[in-house]
Amino acid sequence: QTVDQWFNPAAFQAVASGLLGPAAFQGEWRTALLGLTLHTTIAFAWTVLFLVALVRSPRLRHRVRTRRGAVTVGLTYGALVWLAMDWLVLPLSRARSTPPTALWFWLQLLTHPFLVGLPIVGVLGAVSVVSAKADWYPVTASPPAATVPPVTARARRRVMLEFLWFPVMTR
User: Fold this and answer.
1) What pLDDT sits at residue 119?
2) In whole angstroms, how large is the CA radius of gyration of the chain?
């Protein structure tokens, strides 16, 4: 079996078309790899944006501490990511935005909350909750070294276990 039998490069070429325009569909695997890299970078940027919001907003941190709050924030964030990409980012690129009358627009709007928003909020919200439970200082605080409580081995194990087992969804 070849890679072409189970993977269609056109999906990632479509992402690369935002940078290269229609020529992205002529580049075969090179442009597909560029599209994969761009897609990963964009997803990472949305994750960092949520992390910054989480660090700076006590209200948001409080909201994601419960399962219901995390799910609500995740679903909302995923929808906002799609709308921002389609209405703000894509028009600035060489790709076309999707009109709201197209079925693809609504499919993306329905899937991004689950495939983008929930994973981002689930992982980062879990880290936020775990760090609060372990009495760690938030990223924005810079206390003198003498006032930082020691992190016990038990707290480290708990952080790893809760992070690995996706704690926001198990509360």
Assistant:
1) 94
2) 20
**d(C-alpha 42, C-alpha 70), whole Å:** 22
Q: Each residue of 50-94: pLDDT tens digit? A: 999 998 999 999 999 889 999 999 999 999 999 999 999 999 999
Buried b / exposed e over 71-86, threshold 16 CB at 10 Å, is bebbbebbbebbeebb
Which residue has tokens 């969804």? 169
Selected residue with higher pLDDT from 143 and 72: 72
* Cβ neighbour number for residue 116 with a 10 Å cutoff: 22
Provide the 10 A C-beta neighbour count for residue 115.
Answer: 12
Average pLDDT over residues 108-116: 96
Environment class of 54 (CB within 10 Å of its CB; exposed 0-12, middle 13-18, buried 19+): buried
Q: What is the pLDDT of residue 99?
A: 93
CA distances from 97 to 4, 13, 39, 153 (A): 27, 15, 16, 50
Nearest C-alpha neighbor of 55 from the set 118, 119, 132, 117: 132
Residues with Cβ within 8 Å of residue 124, at least 6 apart in sequence: 47, 50, 51, 54, 64
